[in-house]
Amino acid sequence: MNRSFRNRRGITSVIAMLFLVLIGTLALGFYTSVTTATALAKNDRRTAKALMAAESGIQFMRYTLARVSIPPATTSANLLSELMTDLEADENISGNLLGRAIERPGNGNVITIPFISTDPAERSGFTVTLTDIGGVGEVVCTVRGSSGRDGSVSSKGVRLDFSRHEIPSSIFDSAVASKGKIAMTKGAITGIPGVSSDAIVKVMSAAGSGQTAIYMTGGAIGSIAGGELQVLDVHDTSSIPDGKADTGVTMLGSASVHGISNVNTVYANYVKTLPLPEFPVVDTTVFTPYAKNLYNGAKQGVLKNVRIPAGTNPDFTGNVTIQGIMYIESPNTVTFRGTTTLKGFLVFEDAGSPSVNRLDAKGNFGYDNLPDDAEFDALRAVTGISMLAPKASLMMSGSGGDTQLRGNLILGTFYNGGASDVQIEKGSILTFDASTTSNSATFSGKTVKFASTGLANPPSMGVTYSSRFLPAKGSYLELN
């Protein structure tokens, strides 16, 4: 049987077109997939860059806020003003703002720091908002990081809370620290043999440039085991004093430091410079509630939590024991002729000046623990204080037994001219008088011995220091 076949032209073309459409569709899908993935990758990259910028901003602000110095007396109402002043003076911030300014709109509770670049090529950077939330020294730091160009920008935010913390001061590292001139004509400042090394015997004066900070015509500071003179770094101690160089230190006669009288050796090895340490701000009013008993005029005996009114000028002719606190109002001259035992501490009102507020120790001092009576319970937590009298003078001229004190002596001026040794345990001598015409601390008697400085026993009450901001634990939060 014969069959006939008809030629079907064009089928190859149809099949080719079908494959072309299929391959084109696959190519288009592949292109779309790649384009979408690329866009997502770019978006993720911008987001990661934005988060990295925000994290960089948080670290930048942690560093910045840890370096501010807010004065102790700053109230909550003035907190942002003080913080703004410090931020504007910070070269790390101003150097990155390219002429832009930190703002505080309407002097309100918000400070804004404009855009700081972290990656110019990617246009990455951060802005900062500091908000005073009304707590005592609490600030919320919000950092917004951004990244992107050509109109495509990603943003991420990070928040961290900060609170004020006092800046540790090195002032109690010295056995003697004075705002003004220290003079020594005889006697010695040493450690206690067998108990403490003379390495703790550091004598520091904060007298400024052009002034004699430490003036020695006799006496000894330390021994071969230690002893050091400290002056501010505004003085030029690069050469031996020749009458022209401002070294801040003068040594004459038989004066010695570290057991050495040779001026060249002392200047080369035992005169140190340091930046101005912070002296604490004193507030004696916090102690007034504890001094509940008005002074009755007794010349001797036991005085419990006593307050001496201004102008009383008591003269304790016999032995006296102070239990708890003796609070002295200004002005007053208080004379101690017998042996005074401090079973507590003495506070002189922070008013007036050392010329009208005097503690005249013609006798000697000793110390003991607070009595166990309940009336002293509120004072048991107060540590680190022997005498707190930043605007009073202490003149020690005892000639009997040795004087022994425990805790820091924070005074306006100090003068030791007695024939008795003075021993201080767990404390330093700080003098606040910065007069350029008189001595802030004078040593012209026998030996003043230190068992330890006040570094490990700072006053726990009545003194404050400048503060900085540190992050609050557990407050980190990433914002959408």
Helix-strand blueprint:
Blueprint: H1 11-65, H2 79-88, H3 91-94, E1 110-119, E2 124-132, E3 138-149, E4 152-166, E5 176-178, E6 181-184, E7 188-191, E8 202-205, E9 214-216, E10 220-221, E11 228-232, E12 249-251, E13 256-257, H4 263-269, E14 271-274, E15 281-282, E16 293-294, E17 301-308, E18 315-316, E19 320-328, E20 332-336, E21 339-348, E22 357-361, E23 364-367, E24 385-396, E25 403-406, E26 408-416, E27 422-425, E28 429-431, E29 439-443, E30 447-450, E31 463-464, E32 467-471, E33 477-479
Parallel strand pairs: 5-8, 5-28, 6-9, 6-29, 7-10, 7-30, 8-11, 9-12, 10-13, 11-14, 16-17, 17-19, 18-20, 19-21, 20-22, 21-23, 21-24, 22-24, 24-26, 25-27, 26-28, 26-29, 27-30
Antiparallel strand pairs: 1-2, 2-3, 3-4, 4-32, 4-33, 15-31
Description:
It contains 4 helices and 33 strands. The N and C termini lie far apart (84 Å). Strand 3 (138-149) and strand 4 (152-166) form a beta hairpin. The longest helix is centred in the first third of the chain and has 55 residues, at 11-65. The chain has 480 residues and is an alpha/beta fold. The chain has helices spanning 11-65, 79-88, 91-94, 263-269, and strands at residues 110-119, 124-132, 138-149, 152-166, 176-178, 181-184, 188-191, 202-205, 214-216, 220-221, 228-232, 249-251, 256-257, 271-274, 281-282, 293-294, 301-308, 315-316, 320-328, 332-336, 339-348, 357-361, 364-367, 385-396, 403-406, 408-416, 422-425, 429-431, 439-443, 447-450, 463-464, 467-471, 477-479.
